[in-house]
Write a structure and sequence with these properties.
Length: 408
């Protein structure tokens, strides 16, 4: 959806992406669309619907990647099951994993997996580059290339599950209804102990500037017959695209996070320039109106700590005042700034961050300080892409070979 105005994106909408050989990637398509394609390919309507249901289950529940192995040849001639190409993958000493991915038309974007004691969070990108130029954000220095398709968005989740090795193997109970040509049962179903438990739409791009594709991808992630991740475990982070926020709550229903980062007009205008279009009052009112927000499902305000910019005691008190004025069920995440080459800001001191956090806590609002993760692997969003651009083709090829060997 295009939103008029000076700092709007130039979305490139794409539904399905035929490959060079003409085959269509099934990942990212809803069941109904798969059924239509099967019908066009020659199945009668009833068979197409049944087969689409079966294939959908195999794609998203089993993580099937090889269509030729399990389907009639005529389907394998027409369709593929895609995954984003991995250009580079990195492992931090703290367990954080980061991947630089590439679309079929050669555009690079990133995803990050952050393991914790009680959860594993995948940070997913929605666009290649970004238009919004948030001044603390490395991705914001890159031009927007295009929106990611639903397949490229849900493909990140599929790829992460591949890499974490957590697809269940075929079970006995749920395969009886599948056709002989679909059954590839090697037994031993186990879906316990998921590693990937949470998703945050917080990678490259502004998800509400690619609303339709993000919604369609997240519906596949939430589908009970598919990846089956609860909406309560998915958070969409926006820099403040006010006109789309209610729609997000109504049509997707996931948790909301807002890149707030400042509590005065002047400072937010500088740090998060979309503030010049949708000001603080409008943004906070949209938060107050967000469908489904409650004390059990609080809105998260992201607040990056920038030395001598947004980190004073007065800023902390103003943050509390604003949250109370708008009666927001909110928590605040304080994020120590992770500098990148060319950044114009520095991170606030530990003592300053601690004091800021105390003031917000004293105001009755949770404000934990986030532990920086993956600093040894350029974990600031957008950094991996820059690092890869500095590498020679030979280095990248070698890393890709190592990665393939590691994946077996
Ligand atoms: S913080 Fe998000 S919206 Fe802002 S420039 Fe970075 S990727 Fe874009």
């Amino acid at each position: 959806m295009q939103i008029p105005g000076l700092i709007d994106p130039v979305p490139v909408a794409r539904d399905i992406t035929p490959r060079e050989d003409g085959r269509v990637d099934l990942i990212g398509l809803p069941r109904q669309r798969i059924a239509e394609l099967f019908e066009t390919a020659g199945l009668d309507a009833k068979a197409a619907k049944l087969r689409a249901k079966q294939v959908f289950h195999w794609l998203y529940h089993r993580g099937m990647t090889d269509i030729a192995k399990t389907m009639r040849p005529w389907l394998a001639e027409r369709f593929v099951i895609g995954r984003p190409e991995i250009v580079l993958s990195q492992h931090s000493s703290d367990g954080t994993r980061k991947w630089l991915l590439k679309t079929a038309d050669d555009h690079e974007y990133e995803m990050v997996f952050i393991p914790d004691a009680d959860r594993g969070t995948l940070c997913v990108s929605s666009q290649v580059g970004c238009t919004l130029n948030c001044r603390f954000c490395h991705t914001g220095t890159m031009r927007l290339v295009r929106n990611l398709t639903p397949g490229e968005i849900v493909g990140q989740v599929m790829l992460a599950r591949d890499a974490l090795g957590e697809w269940p193997k075929a079970g006995q109970a749920d395969l009886s209804a599948l056709g002989d040509d679909l059954v590839d049962d090697d037994g031993g179903y186990s879906s316990d102990g998921r590693l990937l438990t949470n998703i945050v739409m917080m990678g490259m791009g502004e998800p509400l500037y690619n609303f339709d594709n993000v919604r369609d991808a997240l519906k596949l992630v939430m589908d009970g017959d598919g990846l089956a991740l609860s909406k309560r475990r998915i958070t969409l982070s926006t820099s403040g695209v006010v006109p789309m926020m209610a729609k997000c709550g109504e049509e997707i229903g996931v948790n909301l996070a807002v890149s707030l980062h400042a509590v005065t007009k002047d400072i937010r205008d500088e740090i998060v320039p979309i503030n010049r279009k949708y000001g603080l009052e409008e943004l906070l009112q949209a938060c107050a109106d967000y469908p489904g927000a409650s004390n059990a499902r609080r809105i998260t305000f992201e607040y990056v700590m920038l030395k001598d910019k947004n980190d004073s005691d007065e800023h902390a008190r103003e943050l509390v005042r604003l949250i109370k004025q708008y009666k927001l069920p909110a928590k605040v995440n304080l994020i120590p700034f992770n500098p990148w080459p060319g950044a114009i800001y520095e991170c606030s001191s530990q003592e300053r961050i601690r004091r800021f956090s105390e003031i917000v806590f004293e105001g009755g609002i949770s404000a934990p300080v986030r532990t920086p993760r993956g600093r040894d692997i350029d974990a600031a969003c957008g950094q991996l892409k820059t690092a890869a651009q500095k590498m020679s083709r030979a280095e990248l090829d070698r890393l890709a070979e190592e990665k393939q060997a590691a994946l077996g």
